[in-house]
Every structure is written in structure tokens, then in C-alpha cells.
Amino acid sequence: MTRLFWGIVMRDLRLAVRHGADTLGAVLFFVVSATLFPLALGPSPELLRHMAPGILWVCALLAALLPLDRLFGAELEDGSLDQLLLLGLPPALVALAKITAHWLTTGVPLLLAAGPLAIMLGLPATTLPVLLGGLFLGSVVLSLIGGMGASIVLGARRGGVLLPLLTLPLATPALIFGAAAIDAASNGLPWQPDLELLGAFVAGTLPLCPLAAGAGLRAAAE
């Protein structure tokens, strides 16, 4: 069962490398949107530093949503979704394998791009570990919630429109906790409670979202 799980993950990673448009588009959106904010906010470094946590988290949230429309849609269109569900893995583990591949191809590149963008936006260097730790936990949450939402709207008409409406409200607490942790660290306040809440959010979504996603995949296949 473990071999089948990681086989699905590696399959998706190979497909992502071969057709890297989704990953490249998400990273480019993250970089370009975060880079354009200083032009909109004006030349005040203090204002930019104050807004930087929210800017980075909002841009990361929107960038993570971009590839979700194709997370399960390609398999549904070419019929390979039925084959994945017949491998012998529970549907929840099939969904978790796809979500894991999404995080590796989207969440990890966003983490790598976040450090230079944070420095560009004027965040103190001492807050970078808090930023990266929060984005690590937050990107996991975004992938889990996004995967659940993608499976629920799978096969629905205008599913690409419904997906952000379903996932954005659920992912907002992660954005709040993550941005609050960076803001607290930059002001010399305790930031650990915010990351602990974000970790609790991960602990809650990790078992629940794959179960819901697996039920969505099973319903779409039927």
C-alpha cells in the first residue's frame, strides 16, 4: 500500500516536470503579484514593511489555488481516475497522494521564493524563520483544503468558478494565523501562539480533508 501511495506521488511529480506550466505559473504569479505591491503602496518603507506579511500570505494563497483546477480534472477527462481508484488504495489515500504531489510541486517552490520576496518587501531578517515556518504549515493547509475543494467540484459545471468560492473561506484562518505570526515577530511580540494555532489547523485538516476528497473522487467516478 505504501508503494502504491508513493507510486502515485512520483507519477504526478514526473508529469509536473514534463508539463511544468502549472508550477511555473503559480510561482510567477506569486513573484509578480508580490513585486507589484510596492508600486501600488508608494515609496514608504515603513508602510511596506507593515503590509508585507499580509502581502506574502495573500499572494501565496492565490498562487496555490491556480493549479488546483487540474488536480483531479485531468484524470477524470482521460479516464485514469477510475484506474487509480482500482489500484487497491482507499480513495482517501489516492486523494492524499495527489495532494502531496501538489504540495511538492507548488508549496515547496513558493517557500523557496518567499525568502527573497520578504527581504525585498523590507521584513527584518530575524522574521524569516517565522515566515518560512508559517508558510510551510500554511502551504500544507492550502493543499489539503484545496484538494478537498477540487474533488468536491470535480465534474461540476463551472467548477473552476466554484473552487475559489469553496476554498478561500476555509483557508482564511491559516492566512490570519500566518500573517499574525510574522507581524508579532517583527514587532518583538510572542509569535509562537499563532504558529501553534496554525499547527493545530494542520492537525485538524490532515485526517479530515483526504477523507472528504476521497468521497468526492468516488462520487465523481460513479
TrEMBL record:
<dbReference type="GO" id="GO:1903607">
    <property type="term" value="P:cytochrome c biosynthetic process"/>
</dbReference>
<feature type="transmembrane region" description="Helical">
    <location>
        <begin position="21"/>
        <end position="42"/>
    </location>
</feature>
<dbReference type="GO" id="GO:0017004">
    <property type="term" value="P:cytochrome complex assembly"/>
</dbReference>
<feature type="transmembrane region" description="Helical">
    <location>
        <begin position="130"/>
        <end position="154"/>
    </location>
</feature>
<keyword id="KW-0472">Membrane</keyword>
<keyword id="KW-0997">Cell inner membrane</keyword>
<dbReference type="InterPro" id="IPR026031">
    <property type="entry name" value="Cyt_c_CcmB_bac"/>
</dbReference>
<feature type="transmembrane region" description="Helical">
    <location>
        <begin position="54"/>
        <end position="72"/>
    </location>
</feature>
<protein>
    <recommendedName>
        <fullName>Heme exporter protein B</fullName>
    </recommendedName>
</protein>
<keyword id="KW-1003">Cell membrane</keyword>
<comment type="similarity">
    <text>Belongs to the CcmB/CycW/HelB family.</text>
</comment>
<keyword id="KW-0813">Transport</keyword>
<keyword id="KW-1133">Transmembrane helix</keyword>
<feature type="transmembrane region" description="Helical">
    <location>
        <begin position="161"/>
        <end position="182"/>
    </location>
</feature>
<comment type="function">
    <text>Required for the export of heme to the periplasm for the biogenesis of c-type cytochromes.</text>
</comment>
<keyword id="KW-0201">Cytochrome c-type biogenesis</keyword>
<feature type="transmembrane region" description="Helical">
    <location>
        <begin position="197"/>
        <end position="217"/>
    </location>
</feature>
<dbReference type="GO" id="GO:0005886">
    <property type="term" value="C:plasma membrane"/>
</dbReference>
<keyword id="KW-0812">Transmembrane</keyword>
<dbReference type="GO" id="GO:0015232">
    <property type="term" value="F:heme transmembrane transporter activity"/>
</dbReference>
<dbReference type="InterPro" id="IPR003544">
    <property type="entry name" value="Cyt_c_biogenesis_CcmB"/>
</dbReference>
<dbReference type="Pfam" id="PF03379">
    <property type="entry name" value="CcmB"/>
</dbReference>
